[in-house]
């Protein structure tokens, strides 16, 4: 089955009504092709959509069983957030708003150089600035992965100056990078990147039992705990997303909400 089949299920499941117009606008196809796609989906599905004249569209039956959809709300919300709220395709998009942090500018020359070095596992000479060294400083790195932390993009790379793998903020590279020879310092040697760490969260114990129950339900905790696994190199970023500060506990437990139950296990991987 195809991406179009997934989209058919997405709209039918969450919005309860699918038309050929949805497919036409999403994929830039003709109504004839959209009708063929719907027909093909219905033939492959054990619970095909039913055309209902009163709503002028296809609706899922009560026993609808998606083949590709996860049925997790985030799946629909992520698609919705990427869609223009001014589109005529879905009314729901007009009632959706997403905060977007300002984009950090990355030089096209730098980006192309990073991509080339990454694909070929080559050393790259490039200038970099930081808060501790605001003046340009030459670096030789071997990049292996772009990382989106939710607030910014950074680059995971081997740094020859410090002889270790580090994170580099993409918007802080300067100048025109120069490709050098291949390097053995690829992703396979990055221990922090290849090490999986489990973080165990629980409701802030300063909250009342009823408030803790609310937090536990929010995160679908099991026996009062939320277990999350991530790369050791990303532990600090995940903690920041979860609004858990390991250095200073917020005085207001309603603001803190979550606590880390296995701090000693992850301390070696914390940044800073």
Structural overview:
- This protein is of the alpha+beta class and 272 residues long.
- It is 32% helix and 24% strand.
- The chain is built from ten helices and ten strands.
- It is globular, with a radius of gyration of 24 Å.
- It starts with a helix and ends in a 6-residue tail after the last helix.
Short description:
The protein is built from 10 helices and 10 strands. The chain is of the alpha+beta class and 272 residues long.
Describe the SSE topology.
Layout: H1 3-15, H2 20-27, H3 31-44, E1 50-52, E2 57-59, H4 73-81, H5 108-120, E3 122-128, E4 137-148, E5 153-159, E6 164-169, E7 173-182, H6 191-194, E8 196-203, H7 209-218, E9 226-231, H8 235-241, H9 253-256, E10 258-260, H10 263-266
Antiparallel strand pairs: 1-2, 3-4, 3-7, 4-5, 5-6, 8-9, 8-10
Helix pairs in contact: 2-3
Estimated share of beta-strand residues: 15-25%
The total beta strand count reads 10
Mean model confidence by pLDDT: 89
H/E series, N to C?
HHHEEHHEEEEEHEHEHHEH
Net shape: globular
Straight-line distance between termini: 46 Å
Q: What low-confidence regions span 5 or more consecutive residues with pLDDT below 50?
A: none
Count of helices? 10
Rg value: 24 Å
State the major sheet: 5 strands, antiparallel
Strands of the widest sheet, in order across it, are: 6-5-4-3-7
Helix percentage range: 25-40%
Q: By helix and strand content, what is the structural category?
A: alpha+beta
């Amino acid at each position: 089955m195809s991406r179009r089949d997934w989209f058919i299920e997405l709209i039918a499941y969450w919005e309860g009504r699918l038309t050929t117009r949805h497919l036409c606008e999403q994929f830039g196809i003709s109504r004839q092709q959209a009708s063929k796609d719907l027909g093909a989906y219905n033939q492959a599905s054990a619970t095909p959509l039913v055309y209902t004249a009163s709503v002028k569209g296809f609706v899922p039956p009560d026993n609808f069983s998606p083949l590709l959809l996860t049925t997790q709300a985030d799946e629909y919300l992520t698609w919705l957030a990427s869609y223009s709220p001014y589109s005529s395709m879905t009314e729901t998009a007009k009632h959706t708003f997403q905060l977007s942090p300002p984009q950090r500018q990355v030089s096209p020359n730098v980006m192309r150089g990073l991509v080339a070095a990454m694909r070929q596992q080559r050393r790259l000479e490039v200038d970099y600035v930081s808060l501790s060294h605001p003046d340009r400083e030459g670096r030789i790195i071997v990049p292996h992965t772009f990382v989106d932390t939710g607030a910014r993009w950074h680059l995971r790379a081997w740094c020859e100056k410090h002889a270790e793998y580090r994170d580099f903020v993409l918007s802080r590279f300067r100048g025109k990078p120069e490709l050098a020879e291949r390097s053995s310092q690829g992703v396979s040697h990055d221990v922090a990147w290849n090490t999986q760490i489990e973080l165990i969260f629980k409701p802030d114990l300063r909250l009342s039992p009823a408030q803790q129950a609310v937090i536990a339900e929010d995160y679908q905790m099991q026996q009062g705990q939320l277990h999350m696994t991530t790369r050791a190199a990303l532990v600090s970023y995940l903690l920041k997303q979860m609004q858990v500060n390991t250095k200073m506990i917020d005085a207001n437990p309603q603001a803190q909400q979550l606590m880390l139950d296995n701090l000693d296990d992850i301390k070696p991987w914390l940044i800073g």
